[in-house]
Write a structure and sequence with these properties.
Rossmann fold; alpha/beta; 15% strand; 11 helices; six-stranded mixed β-sheet; single chain; six-stranded parallel β-sheet
Amino acid sequence: MPGMRDVAKHAKVALSTVSTVLNNSDKYVSGEIRQKVLAAAVDLGYVLTEKKRFTRKTIAVILPVITSSFFPNVLNGIQDTVSQDKNFLLFYNSNFSFEKEQAYLQTLRKQSLTGVILDSICPADLEDSYLSWLEKEFIDNGIPVVMLERKIKSNRFYCIFIDNFLSAKIAVRHLIDLGHRKIAHILGNKHMRHSFERLEGYRQALKDSGIPADPELIQPGDFTPASGYTAMKKLLDIRGDFTALLSANDQMAIGAIKALRTAGKNVPNDCAVAGFDNLGVSTLVDPALTTINVPTFQMGRLAARIIVDAGEGRPYSHCNKLDSNLIVRRSSVRGGLQGA
C-alpha cells in the first residue's frame, strides 16, 4: 500500500506538501501543486483514511486526450462555472485507454466527490455493464455522473451530446448540393461512438440522394492531423476521382488539406473539404474550413452547472442535446465566399 512518501516522490514535491494537501490543511498550496499531488495519489492508488478523505468540494473530470484542440474549450467552460462555486477540479487524461479510465475511476470511487464529468471511451459492447458499475460505485453513493458526447438512456445519468448523425448528414448534403457525387470520408477514432454516428450520417445522406456508398472512399483516422494526412494520402493512392471530403473532425481535415496540397490539388476546386467541431484554428487555415459547429464551451459549462446544481439539490434535465450547425467557408465553395 503506497504511503505519503511514495506520493511525494511521484509528484516530486516535499513530504510536508503532500501532508498539507491530503490532510486538507489551511496552509497555502498553489492550485497547480495541489493538482499534482492529488493526481499522483490517484496514479499510485493512495487511499486516504476515513478521517483524511477529501472534504472540500471536488469534481473529477476524465477526458480522452486533454491536449487535443477540442477539449480546452470544454475545460474552459467547466472552469468558468466551477470557479464561481469554489469547487476544486481534478483533471485526468485517459489517452484513449479504457483501462486507464477505469483505473482512475477505481481510485476516485474511494474519495468524497461532488461529481464526475466523464467523456468515456467505453466500447459499445461493454457499455451496459460499465454503466451498471458506475451507478453502483458513484450514483448510488450520491455522486452524480455527467457523460459527455454520449446519449445515455438511463435517467440516472446526466448526458450532454449533439446529434452527430444529423450533423454529418447536413454537411454531406451541403457537398451534394454543390454538385459532388464522389465524396470521401475520414472516420474518427474507433473507440468513440460519435465517430460511427458521423459515419452513418454520411452514408444516409448519400443514400437519400441515390448515391451508392463506396467503401474505398472511407478511410480510418484517429482525430489527429497526422491521421488525416495519412488517410488522404491513401485515398489519393487508391482513387483519384473523388471531388469532396467530409472529415470526422477539423484536425483531420487540416491534415487532409495538407496532403491534397502536397499532391498538387487545389481546395476547393479539385476537392472540397468539410470538417467537424469548428475549432478556433478552422478559421486560420487557408482556405478557411467549412465545418459543423459543436458548442464545446457550452458543453463544459453545462456539465459543471449540472454537477453544482445536483450537489445543492436543484433538479436538472438528465438528457441534454445541444444545437449544432453548419458553418460554410471557402474550403467547400468554388470561387470562395465574401468575408470567409
